[in-house]
Amino acid sequence: MQCKICDSPSTEYHFGISSCRACAAFFRRYVNSPKQQKECNCEMDRPPCRYCRMEMCVKAGMMVSKVQQKRDSNPCRASGSSLETTQIALRNSDRIFKALGNYNVLGQERKIVHKTSPAKKVNFFEYTSIAIIDSRMVWKLLENTLIELQVLDEKDKHNLFSNFYPKWTLFESAIMAFQRSDVHTFFAPNGKPAKQISKFYKDCMTSRLRMKDDEVLKIFEPYWNSYYGHVAYPLFDLKFDYMELMAILTLLLMDPGYTNISDECSEMCHSLRKVIQRELKGYYLEKNLPTERLFKIIEALLLMEKADTWLQEEVHMCGIYNVPVDEEFRRMVMAPKL
């Protein structure tokens, strides 16, 4: 990663964005300084002046609220800082920012692991196989973002991820469609577009069992219509930014409503969901966005529950009509959850 302010090499997040230590140190000093410039002074100072450099930091996404306030040299002096401290804690979005950073790393890892041209279109079996390969990297992202996952036993880890991952593959397809302004296309996790509906299923079937186009459309087109009409198009209209998308990532994982996880795991999910919602609210306050957007996040989560149900039905129908599915993906989708 590079510093979003000066393009210097950087591997860390500071005050909400990827930045070098020099820019982070400047931003911290400026925020805590009692003497702040009110206008550009580049003519008298070496450009960029402190005012312009601060403006560059803010435009790049650095948040003043993430800077720890300078400690009072007289701790006994009353300062009315308790409310300020509460607000700063409220606006801390470390987990969501960490998820965003790890998601960017995932993008780089995918280029290495998949090593295939995104121009080639995939069939259903290829989609499910790519999803399983990708699942290892997504789990790594989640563990690096949410350290609480490391204390769960293996059964809870497995079930929590199995509950989450099929929904995430569908949700991420919508993210890719939004990025590419191509909402009418379904994408595999490595960015490959899906084939046209009949070919998506037919092309992975053996010639002896291959169905006709009209048969494929009759059986499987309703699932595509449901996905586009009730998931992809509505998500496209909601127009989430990357912070919101990463919040949805963690909220989809931390679903306490499934019965195949332990009570301890369910409690952890409840707690972490509250943390993410609090971080998201703080992000909205920082960016002067309406906090009512939280309801849109909830709407997206409900949409993905519907999508998960349709995917289960689709995989079941694939079994009936001899459409090959990666076995690990099939087990993940069809595992009892409620």
Structural account:
By secondary structure, the chain is mainly alpha-helical. The chain folds into two domains: 1-64, Erythroid Transcription Factor GATA-1, Chain A (2-Layer Sandwich), CATH 3.30.50.10; 94-334, Retinoid X Receptor (Orthogonal Bundle), CATH 1.10.565.10. The chain has helices spanning 21-32, 50-60, 81-90, 94-114, 124-145, 154-179, 197-202, 213-238, 242-253, 263-286, 293-320, 327-334, and strands spanning 13-14, 17-18. The protein has a two-stranded antiparallel sheet with strand order 1-2. Strand 1 and strand 2 (17-18) form a beta hairpin.
Quick tags:
2 domains, Retinoid X Receptor, elongated, mainly alpha, 61% helix, 338 residues, 12 helices, 2 strands, two-stranded antiparallel sheet, Erythroid Transcription Factor GATA-1, Chain A
Helix percent band: 55-70%
Strand order of the largest sheet: 1-2
Total count of domains: 2
Order of helices and strands: EEHHHHHHHHHHHH
What's the rounded overall pLDDT mean?
A: 85
CATH class of the largest domain: Mainly Alpha
Count of alpha/pi helices = 12
Low-pLDDT stretches: 71-91
- Supply the CATH superfamily name of the largest domain: Retinoid X Receptor
Strand content is under 5%
Based on CA inertia axes, which overall geometry fits?
elongated
Query: What is the fold-level CATH name, i.e. the topology of the largest domain?
Result: Retinoid X Receptor
The biggest sheet amounts to: 2 strands, antiparallel
Distance between the ends: 41 Å
Structural class: mainly alpha
Any guess at the CATH architecture of the largest domain? Answer: Orthogonal Bundle
Kindly provide the radius of gyration, computed on alpha-carbon positions and rounded to a whole number of angstroms.
24 Å
Record field, number of beta strands: 2
Organism: Caenorhabditis remanei (Caenorhabditis vulgaris)
InterPro entries: Nhr-150 (IPR042936), NHR-like_dom_sf (IPR035500), Nucl_hrmn_rcpt_lig-bd (IPR000536), Znf_hrmn_rcpt (IPR001628), Znf_NHR/GATA (IPR013088)
Keywords: DNA-binding, Metal-binding, Nucleus, Receptor, Transcription, Transcription regulation, Zinc, Zinc-finger
Domain NR LBD: 88-338
